[in-house]
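Box 3.1 A note on notation
Throughout this textbook, protein chains are presented in two layers. The first layer is the amino acid sequence; the second is a token string describing backbone geometry. Keep the layers aligned when reading.
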Amino acid sequence: MNIVIEKKDIKEVYETAIIQQTAFWSEVKAKQGLQSKAFNFKVEDGSIYTSALNNTYTHADFLVLLQPLDREHTVAYVPYGPEIEPNEEYQGKFLEELSESLRPHLPSKCILIRYDLAWQSHWAKDNNDFDQLGNWNGPPEKKYQEFRFNFNTVNWNLRKANSDILPSNTIFLDLQSDSTLLLDAMKPKTRYNINLSYRKGINVKKVGMENLQVWYALYQETALRNRIHINDITYFKTVLTARAENTASPADVELLLAELDGQPLAAMFLVISGNRGTYLYGASSSSNRNYMATYALQWEAMKIAKEKGCIEYDLFGVAPRPDPAHPLYGLYKFKSGFGGQLYHRMGCWDYPLNNKQYQRFIATEMHSQGYHI
């Protein structure tokens, strides 16, 4: 396998449905003080696809974020990239060669490359990976995952991270049907709650920076209710104001607000990139929950995405199965009601560039709140 890699201008990053691999996302992260780099690469199809024709090549790119750990050391993070997905038996070898080709382009004291892979999990592809009710059994222990993923590699250097940064389980909804068919595909209770919210007077509208404080108040309420980490308001201001119109991969950000007689009950960030709409962040009030504002909000977001030419909708983050003990079980119940297909990603995989420093990093990470970019 011979991968040819070259640095490229962020503005030229290709259009993609993956928000985190766009020039828009680079702009968001730049406003947060993170440096990013973009790279083109070329690989022979026969080395990544089993049914490839001779002498054909795939040309693609990916975005890398650089996170300083201290004055010297850095982590390279590839969010949901690279996008191209080789056949399973070639994936480890491909990432190994890509990492070694990338190494000279990274800071000299970069200690690892972390790939947050959007590729389908190896352990979610046949019936044996699911129980009798059709629920996913999940991946095996780390050592078995690493054994399978490193098959065909030279250095056996790929390591499963202890936790994932971006959601590894999500639900994708096909938007290519008309609205009636989309509603018909939902669970009856979800369809009922959507209709109920409208009957009770819920109104959903697009808003802008003038309503950022309204969003943030709902978000803080949601975070405290669910005991999750609270981001600063400037983070959301960045997402809402970042622009990448003069690039090959812009994104369209909509802040949607659901109200009852002017009282805000729920809000969300809808981000449209390529042919996909993504429910990136959501928040809701603890009061008047019987008005089902979150249901109207999601339905309006889906319709907006569809109007803007999207063919799929990413509900972005659920429990991997209907397990009441899982912290994302509530999101699973809510989001699965809209129909769609549950999708299990590979999650975060590390390629250490300095093993001694990497072991130190992992030990620190395990005892911290988690490492997020």
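The first helix runs from residue 23 to 31. The two ends are 31 Å apart (CA to CA).
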